[in-house]
Amino acid sequence: MDLITFVTNIYLKYPVLRPSLLFLKRLILPSKPTYSGGGITTVWELPWMNNDSEMTKNFLQANEYVKKNFIFSGTLSHGLDKNNYNDTFWVDWLIAFAAKYAITFTKNNNLNFVECGVGDGNTAFHALSQLKSKPQLLSETKMWLYDSWGAMQSKHLDVSEKQYDGRYSDLDINACKNNLKEFKETTIYNQGYVPEVFESIPKHPDKVNYLHIDLNSAGPSMAALEFFYPKMLDRGVIIFDDYGGKNYSKMRNQIDEFLSDKKGVLLEIPTGRAIFFI
């Protein structure tokens, strides 16, 4: 009997020893992570590995494009650039998955995607890239982009969020437009602060299939949710980028309360995001 078989038998036979044996295993035979980044570390096979599905191909091509071609105007605020972009692999995979879900189960050909908190456009690019293999559907889709492309303002921030006052002052809408130029016929830019932008700009989608909220503050995030939720269609998705953030417990509680009587299921992700499937 080899050592591994012997230890395995002990592990199975004596439950009281399992915590100690697991500790020794991690100490002596640590598992090499297959991925670490975006708040998650795993030793399991990744969903984009050894996978030649249409979704995976679109996702990997989009990831390479972003690394090679994007202008990261907000790097001093969000810390991303082409050298560390792979750190967002899991986050972007979830974006691609949510978009794919909305595309797959939609019952209408005129899709409306909405993103509140756009930055340099990388998550919008990943969402729209899932439509590249469906050119007819892409031509009938609109991506409504809402962002101030300017510094966060104190009046929009909760007491627990005041450290973010002035953040994102380096964002540039023109960099975002350049990054998303491949989808220039699809994207609609609405520059302004949430919620004021909902009043200052007269036209908004009346039906929404996909909503991504990444505003880094409870007040504007809830305003976006309250504004767009009544427009959400069946089989639509809502992504909350900041749901699991340590400084966003107020936002998380407000989202939970808002969704408590709504039809759908909320899936919290280890990366700190959450997806609401309607």
Structure explained in plain terms:
The chain has 278 residues and is of the alpha/beta class. The protein has a single domain (45-277), classed as Rossmann fold (3-Layer(aba) Sandwich). Helices cover 38% and strands 16% of the residues. It is built from eleven helices and nine strands. It has helices at 3-13, 18-28, 54-69, 75-78, 89-105, 122-129, 135-139, 173-179, 197-200, 218-228, 249-259; strands at 35-37, 40-42, 112-116, 142-147, 187-191, 208-213, 232-240, 265-268, 274-277. Helix 10 (218-228) links the parallel strand 6 and strand 7 (232-240). Helix 3 runs antiparallel to helix 6 and helix 10 packs parallel to helix 11. The relative contact order is 0.12.
Q: Describe the biggest sheet?
A: 7 strands, mixed
CATH topology name, in short, is: Rossmann fold
Low-pLDDT stretches are: none
State the order of secondary-structure elements, H for helix, E for strand.
HHEEHHHEHHEHEHEHEHEE
CATH class: Alpha Beta
Output the CATH homologous superfamily. Answer: Vaccinia Virus protein VP39
Strand content: 15-25%
β-strand number = 9
Outline the fold blueprint.
Blueprint: H1 3-13, H2 18-28, E1 35-37, E2 40-42, H3 54-69, H4 75-78, H5 89-105, E3 112-116, H6 122-129, H7 135-139, E4 142-147, H8 173-179, E5 187-191, H9 197-200, E6 208-213, H10 218-228, E7 232-240, H11 249-259, E8 265-268, E9 274-277
Parallel strand pairs: 3-4, 3-6, 4-5, 6-7
Antiparallel strand pairs: 1-2, 7-9, 8-9
